[in-house]
Amino acid sequence: MTIRSTAHARYDLWYHVAWATKYRKRIFTHTYTQTRVKETLRAIAAQYDMMIDKVECLSDHVHLTLSAPPRIAPSRAVQILKSLSTKMMFHEFPWLRKHYWGGEAWAGGYFVRSVGSGLTKEQIDRYIMAQSEESS
Predict the structure, then answer these.
(1) What residues have CB less than 8 Å from 15, skipping those under 6 apart?
(2) I need a surface site. Which of 3, 49, 84, 107 has the fewest CB within 10 A?
(3) Tally of structural domains, the chain
(4) Residue 136 has what pLDDT?
(5) Which residue out of 23, 32, 48, 127 is catalytically annotated?
């Protein structure tokens, strides 16, 4: 991956994000539907200066790797992707209304984990401790 830039920052932030459909309903059983959801998530991410590398849409949940600028918190990135994709899905797939009459297609929660390039928390902890030792 390459280092990305904004007007005031250079960054290489990646997250593994996953969330489920509401009630874990298996609504994405057709390849076409899965493909459209993937395309939609990528398009939404691009509109907000985010980037999706890998995305997998399973019958009842989605996994993706997401890069977002530092100004966008991971929780906000997920909120953007889930809310806007829901609007698109209800517009493009009217049959969803019979499954989700309340207007929400995604479950309320999500999973997020920061991703590093072979760098563990223990390595970071040692680096921080080494920095404090050098300053004294």
Answers:
(1) 65, 66, 67, 68, 74, 77, 112, 113, 114, 115
(2) 3
(3) 1
(4) 46
(5) 127
Residue 2 lies in a domain: no
Note the residue count of the chain. Answer: 136
Is 100 considered catalytic here? no
Q: Is the dihedral of CA 117, 120, 126, 129 positive or negative?
A: positive
CA–CA gap between residue 115 and residue 36 (Å, rounded): 26
The model's pLDDT over 25-78, given as tens digits with 9 standing for 90+, comes to 999 999 999 999 999 999 999 999 999 999 999 999 999 999 999 999 999 999
What does pTM read for this prediction? 0.85
Could you tell me the residue range of the domain that residue 115 belongs to? 9-135
Report the CATH number that the domain containing residue 98 is assigned in CATH: 3.30.70.1290
